[in-house]
C-alpha cells in the first residue's frame, strides 16, 4: 500500500457529506436522547404533559442553562470555573442586603451583577496574571465567595422583595407555559452560539483549548481571552443570582449550593471535552435540558431525587467512558494504520498497549 | 544560587542540616500558622487548649479529616483528584451503624474491616474507570460522587443510626484516650506515618510522584501507571472508609448527610498543605497539618469573637494564599536555576 492510499483511508470518515457527519456527532446523540426522553415521558408519565410541568421545569433549570453558556466557553479553553454557584449565592446576598437597605430594586440587582463581574475578574486575575491553575484557584474562590455570602447574612434570609419584580421572574410569556426568563436565555444563547461557532473569536477559543502555545504563536492573546471569559462567567452567574433570588423570593448565603457540579456535569454530558478544544453549545443546552427533564419526569413518576442523582452520575460516567471506549474500538478496527494519528486530531492519550 | 551550591560547612552536624531543612520546608509555614491560631485562641480563652475537653477536641476533630486528606493527597500527587471521598465516608458510616443494628454481637474488628473494604472497593471503581478509560478523574469522581451519595441517601432514607444502636466498646473508640491522647488521633497518626514512610522510601511510592510530575515521561520509562493510579484511588477510598467507621464511633449519630462536603475540605487541606493540584509535588504530612489548620480555625473563630460563618471565607483565603505562595516559590526557584546556569557557563 502506498502512502497516498494510507492517507486516503485514514481521512475517509471526513469524506462523508456534511449532513451525515452532523448526524454522527456526540451533540446530535444528546439531542436525540433528549427528544426520546421527552416523548417517552409524555407518553408514560402522568401529568408530565401538563403545561405547569414545563413551566416549573424551565424555571428551575434557567440558572443552570444561563451559567452553562460561559462555562462551555471556559471548558473549551481547557480551564474550569468551580466558583459559579458561590457567585450566585454572593449575588443573592448582595441583592437582598441592598434591597433591605432601601435601595431601589433595579440598582440592587445591578450592584449584584457588578459584584459577580468583579468576582469573575478576581478569578481571571489569579488564573491569567498570577498564572495559577484554574481548578485550584476556583476551589479557593468557591470557599471564599461562599464564605463572604454566608458571613454577611449568617443563617438568616431576606424574603421581602418588590412584588412587581418577583412576579416578573415567575411570569410566563403570555399564552405559553414558557417563563419570561427564557427570552433572555434565548437571546444570550444565540449571542454565545454565534460568538463560539461563527466568529474568529470562537475559533480562537478552540485553538487555545487545543494547543495554547500554538494559539499564542498565531497571534491570539491567550491571557486576555481567558480573563474575559472568567469575567463573563462571573457576570452571568451574578445575574443568575438575582434571578434565583426573585424566583424563590429568598436571599440566602447558601443559595444554589452545589450547583457548580450540576452545571459542569451537564456541560460535560453535552459533549464538551474536559481536555479543551471540543464541544458545541447545542449539545450543552440539550445536556442541561436532558438532566432537567429526566429529573422532572422521574419525580412525577414518584421516584425519589436520590435515585435521580444516581442516574445523573451514571449518565455522566457513561457518556465520558463511552467516548473513550469508541475511540479504543476504532483503534482496534483500523489496526496499526490509524494509530498514526493526524496532526490536530484527538489529542487524548489513547489507551496504549502496556 | 548560593543556597544550592553551598558546600556543607566542615563539621556541620546532621542536626543543623535538619534544622535548616525544617526552617525552609513548605510545611513549616502552615505549622507556624497553626501554632499562631492556637496561641491566639488560647490567649482569648485559656479553655481552648488547657481544659481537658479543649485539648481533646483540638486533636479529635481534625483526626477524621486527616485520614481523608492523606488519601486525597496521594491521589493528587498522581495528578488526579477524588471528589467522591465525602460520599464514601457517608456510605461506610451508615454501613457501620447498620452492621451493629442487624448483626448482633458482631466483633468490632469485623466492622472495621468491612468499612475499609467497602471504601477500598468504591475507590477501586473510581480508579478502574480513571485508569482504564483514560478519562480525567475530575469527571469520573464527579459522577461517582453523585452515584455513591445517591445510593447512600436511598439506602438510609430518613432513617438514622443512634448512639444507642452501637456497643459501648465501639463508641469508646471515638472518645477514649491513651495517655491523654485520643485513640482516634493515634490511629490517624499511625496511618499518616505509614503513608509518609511509604511515599518517601518505597520505589512504588516514588513512582507516584514520577507519574504526577510527568505522565508522558513516566509512561515512556515503563512505570506501571495503570496499577499505580488504581492503587492510589483504592488507598484514598479505603482511608475514607476508615474515616467513615470512625465517624460513627465519634459522633454516634449517622444520618444520610454524613461526610457531606468533605471532598472540598480534604482537597482544601491538601492544597493548603502544599500538595500541588497539578501533581507530583507535596507530602501527606503537609496535608495532615492542613487538615488540622482548617478545623482548628473553625473552632477558634467564635472564641476570637468572629462569627464562625466566616470560616469558609478564611479557608478560601488560605487556599488562595497557599497556591500563590507555591507559585511565587516556583518562579523564584526557576530564576535561581537560570542564574545558576549562567554562572557555570
TrEMBL record, chain A:
It is found in: Cell membrane. Keywords: Cell inner membrane, Cell membrane, Membrane, Transmembrane, Transmembrane helix, Transport. GO terms for cellular component: plasma membrane. It is a multi-pass membrane protein. The keyword Transmembrane helix applies. The chain crosses the membrane at residues 29-48, 54-75, 82-101, 107-128, 135-158, 178-198, 229-249, 261-277, 284-301, 307-329. GO terms for molecular function: transmembrane transporter activity. Its main location: membrane. It holds the Pfam family BPD_transp_2. This is Autoinducer 2 import system permease protein LsrD. It comes from Jiangella mangrovi.
UniProtKB/TrEMBL annotation, chain B:
Its main location: membrane. Keywords: Cell inner membrane, Cell membrane, Membrane, Transmembrane, Transmembrane helix, Transport. The chain crosses the membrane at residues 28-46, 58-77, 83-101, 108-132, 138-157, 178-199, 229-249, 270-297, 309-329. It is a multi-pass membrane protein. GO terms for molecular function: transmembrane transporter activity. It is found in: Cell membrane. One of its GO terms (cellular component) is plasma membrane. Coiled coil: none annotated. The keyword Cytoplasm does not apply. InterPro entries: ABC_transp_permease. Pfam families: BPD_transp_2 (PF02653). The complex is composed of two ATP-binding proteins (LsrA), two transmembrane proteins (LsrC and LsrD) and a solute-binding protein (LsrB). Part of the ABC transporter complex LsrABCD involved in autoinducer 2 (AI-2) import. Probably responsible for the translocation of the substrate across the membrane. This is Autoinducer 2 import system permease protein LsrC. It comes from Jiangella mangrovi.
